[in-house]
Structures are given as structure tokens and as C-alpha cells.
Amino acid sequence: MNNRILIFTDNFPYGKSESFLETELEYIDHSFEKVSVFPFEKGKDKNLREISDKIEIVKPVFNKVKNKTEILHKGLFNTSVFLMLIKEGLRSKVWKSSTNFRIWVTHFLVIRSLLSEVKRRDLINFFNQFDILYFYWGLRWSQILPFLPPEIEAKIVVRFHGSDLYEHTNNYYIPWRYEQLCRINKVIAVSETGKKYIENQYPFLKEKIIVSRVGTKDHGLNTYNKSETVRIVSCSNLVPVKRVDLIAKTLALFKIPVSWVHFGDGPGISVIYTLIRQLPGNIKAEMKGAVEHEELMDYYRTAPIDLFINVSSSEGVPVSVMEAMSFGIPVIATNVGGTSEIVSDKTGLLVNADISPEELAEKIEELTQKKDFIDLRSASRLEWEKKSMAGKVYPEFIEQLLLIST
Fold this sequence. Notes:
Blueprint: E1 4-9, H1 20-31, E2 34-39, E3 56-57, H2 68-76, H3 83-91, H4 98-120, H5 123-127, E4 132-135, E5 155-160, H6 177-182, E6 186-189, H7 192-201, E7 209-211, E8 230-235, H8 244-251, E9 258-263, H9 269-277, E10 283-289, H10 293-302, E11 307-310, H11 319-326, E12 331-334, E13 348-351, H12 357-368, H13 373-387, H14 390-405
Helix pairs in contact: 1-14, 2-4, 8-9, 8-12, 11-13
């Protein structure tokens, strides 16, 4: 059986990001003879996760892609493709939009860096040692697909989530998207919503798309007891698309005791701390920062939690929501991406993407005061078991991968 797979990641297994890939990798490791992981960058946290000794980790291309010196040096001073990249900028008239010009320049530097590394390390021969090249994201690594030579024999699989899929989250401009998609043998969407989007935008891919959700492990049920304080948890990077500031602004409107705990870090931390300092005395807010995944799961299991909140402006199907639901925690989430496929009035509350702080405050109070609130906890857990449990979704996904490789 041909079952050798190379997985292209952003950082994994470095640092704490892409934690949801850990579970998927366990299933892949047990099903493939050869598994290698090729990170795009090490990132700021160069600590390695513990993974199977059987899995090979390939040296990343970048140490830290946000290091301007590194990306300029690697992206400019090499002999990889040049004219094709310039033609794309001219064809798309990127100079008419400062945002699109920035996107084009970033892709220009990243693609030239990656292709230069492919040539320097003779990676084409390395790629051909595998039956499947599995790109975990639809951006970054997978942007080299239009430029890979035809002698690549491995089947190409790309998983699309949210920000790497929906073009409106990228100012309606993703360079070489059509050419990228033409090289893919199998497209993996994490939601039905994502699948329909791809089918509508690129009908020629209709026969190549499957839905395979990201799954999460069973870590038990949340320890719950009723309290006069509404206990809210959220978990995300502190970046604009996650709109964590909306949660802080909403809590400022409450007169009742509320405890809010947020897990995650990012460039927006100073804004959040400024808003927290303005909260009234009845609101207790705690920023936990980026923590190990096990620490997060322990908190969900042992700390009484009334509600999980996600107010992103764009999503695939949020893993943070799945994890909360696995503990039987009701969820309030914005109706974006594929969130509506797991969150409903039966498991919590789905709210408009453009909800105001005043409206969100009303919805939180409305939900937590429902007479059948306790029933939401059971329903939340059951919905997770049906749609997001790792033991269900990943074996089905592995079957699809093995079929692709034969």
C-alpha cells in the first residue's frame, strides 16, 4: 500500500499554535507508513511539542516570517521565478489599492523564498518520496503550487479553513488563487459552508471537494454549579478578526456580577487591557494569555463555566467552540463561516455578525436566565459528539486520504 504523507504546516510542531493538528496527526501517524511534517516557520516560540518519534520534522524555511530582514533577504536575493510574479501584479493592477499592493508584495517575497528553498535543498526529489503532499492551510505553503514542476508525482491535498479560504477576508484578492486550485487533487473544506463557497466560486472543483471537519478529543464534562455570577470564557488570538474588544465593551454594560476569563494572546493585548481598566467593579476580567493546550482543557473541565463566547467576524468552523461544546458548555457565537453548522438555539445562541455591545449584553442575559438553561449543556455536548468528536471525524478523513494515495 502506498501511504507516505508530507504535511505542510504554519508552525507545528513549534510553539503552541495549531494545537488542533496534534489530534489529527495521531490518527495519521497510526495509518501511514511514513509521516513527515514541514513547518513554514519556527515562529517566536521555538519549543517543540512532544510528538511520535516516528514522525520526521523537516527544517522550516523561516525562523520568523514577520522578521522583515529575514523575509526581504530570502525573498529578494535569489534566482527563483520573477517575471510570473511581476505579471500577476500588473494583471491585477495592485497599485490601485494599497492593501492589495501589500498583499501582492508579501506573496511575492514568500513565494520566492519558498521556491528558492525548494531549489537549494533539492526538495522536488524529496517531495517525490511521498504519495501525498498535504497542505494544512490554503495560504502560505500552498501558494507555491502554481510554480511546482509537472514532475511532482505525489497527490496534492489542501485543507481550507476560514481566513485562508474566503477572499473577502483578504480584501477580495488572493494572488494566483485560480492557478493554485488547478494543481490540487483533493480539496478539504472544514464546513459545508466552505464547500458551497468553493463550488460557487470555482465550479470546476466540484468533483474534488469533500467536507472533513476538524475534530477534538473528549476531555470530560465541565464541573458546573449555579452561581449569582455569570461566568464567561473566550479563547482566541487577540487579532482584529476575533473582535475580543467587543466582549470587553459588552461587559461594561452589565450591572450584575460577571466573571470573564480569556485565553489567548496577540498584538491587540494593549487595547484589551485598556478596556479592562475601564470596567466597573462588578466585572472581573482575567487575561490568561497563551497557555499549553492541556492547561486549557483542565480549566474547561474543573472551573465552573456558564457560557463560552466567540464573536469573530470570519471563521471556518471554530475549534475553540467545538472544544467548549465537548465539555457541555453552551455557546454564543456570531453567524459567520460554518459556525451555524454546530451552534444553534438548542446549544446556545447564534447572533448576527454585526451585533452591537448593547445587543450582545441582552443576548447573554437572555440566554443565562432561560429556565431550560441546564438542558443547553446536554444538547451542546450531544451536538459535539455528533459532528466534532475526533474519534468520529478523523477515521473517516483517513479513509479518504488513503483512497487518494492509491
